[in-house]
Design brief:
Layout: H1 3-16, H2 19-28, H3 42-45, H4 50-55, H5 58-69, H6 79-94, H7 102-107
Helix pairs in contact: 2-5
Length: 116
């Protein structure tokens, strides 16, 4: 593999690393018997929803707190940024998004979108 591919794979691993313990905790929790807005598979996508957060069983609160504290923007109260970061992680996890090399952007004739 070339360095760019290695860098992209490393970036993807770094982005997904905080999500994996949360997914593990959700998988291990017996949420099928809960009368909560925690229906799978939508739970992960709607995880930042205040209603979902309020309904989390005590056993999931520690994993949720660790995930939320590490979510860029969340501690600063920038919920828009936190939501975008979470959406990106979930999309990567679900295979709906993936990092691409700059070369691929150019080959497709696309331009990188930058805010500001």
């Amino acid at each position: 593999m070339n360095n760019t591919t290695d860098d992209i794979q490393h970036l993807e691993a770094v982005l997904l690393e905080p999500l994996i313990p949360l997914i593990t905790a959700l998988d291990e929790a017996d949420l099928h018997h809960e009368d909560l807005p925690l229906a799978m598979p939508g739970l992960l996508k709607s995880f930042l929803d205040p209603e979902v957060q309020a309904a989390l069983p005590a056993g999931l609160r520690a994993a949720a707190a660790v995930y939320l504290e590490g979510l860029p923007g969340y501690r600063d109260g920038d919920l828009r940024r936190a939501a975008l970061q979470h959406e990106l992680r979930v999309a990567l996890w679900d295979g709906e998004a993936f990092p691409i090399e700059e070369r691929e952007i150019e080959e497709l004739g696309l331009e990188e979108h930058r805010d500001g």
